[in-house]
Amino acid sequence: MTQYSMPDNNPVALKDSVKQHWEDETCGTRIATGIVEGGATENAGGDTGRAERLEFFESISRNRYEVEPFIIEFAAFEKSAGKKVLEIGIGAGSDFENWVKNGADATGLDLTEAAIELTRERLSLREHPESAFTLRTADAENLDLPDNTFDLVYSYGVIHHSPNTEKCLDEIYRVLKPGGQTKLMVYATFSMTGILLWIRHALLKGKPFQSQRGVIYQHLESPGTKTYSPTEFKSILENHGFKVTSIYKKLGVGDLLNMPLSKKYDHSLYRIFYNLYPRFFIKLFGNGLGLFLMCEARKPQ
Predict the structure, then answer these.
(1) What pTM, to 2 d.p., does this model score?
(2) Distance between CA atoms of 146 and 144, rounded to whole angstroms?
(3) Residue 268, C-beta contacts closer than 8 angstroms, at least 6 positions apart
(4) Backbone phi, psi, residue 288, to 5°
(5) What's the average model confidence in pLDDT over 32-59?
(6) Bridging pattern class, strands 292-298 and 176-187
(7) Under 8 Å between Cβ of 187 and 216
(8) Would you tell me how many other CB atoms lie within 10 Å of the CB of residue 58?
(9) Is the dihedral of CA 109, 114, 117, 122 positive or negative?
C-alpha cells in the first residue's frame, strides 16, 4: 500500500491548506455565470438579484451534468426517496439539492463554511424547507454522527484531498447501517490529467522521473491530493471492511479540459493549448485515461 508523506510531517497544517484552497474557490463555482463576491453576486437585492443567483446555481448544475452526465446514473438520485443519505463534501450543492428534491432525508457536510453557505442559499432560493435537510461544517476524518445511521454515504471527488483518507473510510463504514451502501469517486493514478500535469511540472522542469502520483499530489487542486489504482483502492476498501460491488474509471473534465482555466493557467500560452486540445482524439482512447475512479461498496449485514 502506498504511503503518502505530509509536508513537514504536519497533517494539521496540510488540512488547513486544503480547507483554505476550497474556501477560496468552492468546487464547481469556476464554471458558473454571475459575479461571485464573498458567496453572493453583486447587486443581489430584489427580484433581479434573486434571478441572478438562481441562474448562478443553475449554471453550476447545468454545466456539471452536461460535462459529467454519468454522475446522474452513478448517484441514482431518483432511488433515494425515504433513505437517510449523507453527502461528504457538498461543494456548491448540485448533488445535494438532488438528494433533497428526490425525497431523501439528507445530511450534507463540508470542511468549508463557503460550501455550507452556498448550498444553504441554493436550497433557500429553490424554496426547499429547512426541515428537509441538515447542513453543517465537519471534518470527514472525525464525523460527529452516531454509528449505523445512514442507508447511503456519497462523496464525489472529496476524500482523496483529506490528509488521512483511510480514516475517512473508517468513519464512512462506522456511520453506515449494516447493509448500507457507499458511493465514492476518488482520483486514479494514471490519467490524461496526470499526463498533462506531468509534462508541465516534471518533464518541462527537467524532472522526467517524477511520477504522475507525485505531480498530482503537489499540483492538482488543493495540496496533498492522492490518487489510487483500481486494484489498490479496491484492496483499501476491503481492508476497511467493505464489500466492493463496482469499481471503474471515467474520463473527467480535467482529462478533456471541459472547464474554464484556473487562475494559475489563465494566460495566453495555456489558452492557445486549451483551444487546440484534441478532445475527440482523447475520447478515442476510452476511460482508461480517466482521472475519476468510481467506486460502489457495501457494509456487510
Answers:
(1) 0.91
(2) 7
(3) none
(4) -60, -25
(5) 66
(6) antiparallel
(7) yes
(8) 17
(9) negative
Please identify which residue in the block is written with the cell numbers 457538498.
90
Instruction: Give the neighbor-by-neighbor strand order of the sheet with 133-137.
Output: 133-137, 105-110, 84-88, 150-156, 176-187, 292-298, 243-250
Topology at the third CATH level for domain 11-298: Rossmann fold (3.40.50)
When pLDDT is cut at 50, 70 and 90, the band that residue 38 belongs to is very low
Q: Where does the pLDDT of residue 225 fall: very low under 50, low under 70, confident under 90, or very high at 90 and above? A: very high
Mean pLDDT of 125-131: 95
Greater confidence (259 vs 98) lies with: 98
- Please give the single-letter amino acid code of residue 25: E
